[in-house]
Amino acid sequence: MKLSKRLLSIIPHIQDEDSIIDVGCDHAYLDIYLAQHKNLKKIIAVDIMEGPLLIAKKNIKTNDLENVIKVVRSDGLEKLTKDINTVIITGLGGKTITNILKKDESRLININKIVIIPNNNFYETRKEITKLGYKIEYEELIDDKNIYLLIIFKKGNKRYSYKELFFGPFLLKEKNNLFKKYYLAEVTKIKEILTKLPKRYIIKHIRMRQKIRTIKQILK
Ligand SMILES: C[S@@+](CC[C@H](N)C(=O)[O-])C[C@H]1O[C@@H](n2cnc3c(N)ncnc32)[C@H](O)[C@@H]1O
User: Fold this and answer.
1) Which phi and psi angles does 100 have, rounded to 5°?
2) CA distance linking residue 195 with residue 156, whole number of Å
3) Distance 10 CA to ligand 1 centre (A)
4) How many CB atoms lie within 10 A of CB 27?
5) How crowded is the C-beta side of 196, counted as CA atoms within 13 Å?
6) In the chain, fewer beta carbons within 10 Å around the N or the C end?
7) Is the CB of residue 13 less than 8 Å from the CB of residue 152?
8) Tens digit of pLDDT for each residue in 128-148?
9) Is 20 helix (H, G, I), strand (E, B) or coil?
């Protein structure tokens, strides 16, 4: 099975001793790849919608992995079992990801690793997940047609500055070319929004201009 560069970025961060739940599995490509390339204790692929689950089941059957990957209909973590230690959530908005985690916060007790690729809202996502008692272990920007962000959280507590939550503590230190490309594009996007945003939204204007200043300061 050929996996996208985006999902492939997760693979080195999953170890054989892990037992995973993939929330919003959709096609289950990631789970199939993991089943074929790792020797995980358990793989549960969940989705809230029946349609994606049917496709996931079909793909799993085609790859003869019905005894390896368990497919469950679940809203977020509501079907999470105690033997799972890793949560993977990719391809959803940052707010949806944090809502899924916060809604079932009490079930996170045995979860020592959270792997996410949020579509947006990176600042809020880092802020909310670190508030749940996780620290950022690894971050990577992935160039896969769009630029995606992979974040690995591990159980633990660490305080982060506003800039670390905004840009990512590791990405901020490195400031590689992809980082610069991503944030230059962000500035262009914000400027475009500003030209269309009516002047009466004063607070929004101020916040967005502040965001541009913060980004420009970091890119200097
Ligand atoms: C865009 S797909 C992402 C698929 C895959 N994870 C990826 O990154 O390629 C998002 C999937 O998440 C599912 N989803 C959305 N909210 C969910 C929730 N609360 N619980 C479980 N699945 C959810 C959707 O039904 C959809 O199949």
Assistant:
1) -60, -45
2) 42
3) 16
4) 15
5) 5
6) C
7) yes
8) 999 999 999 999 999 999 999
9) strand
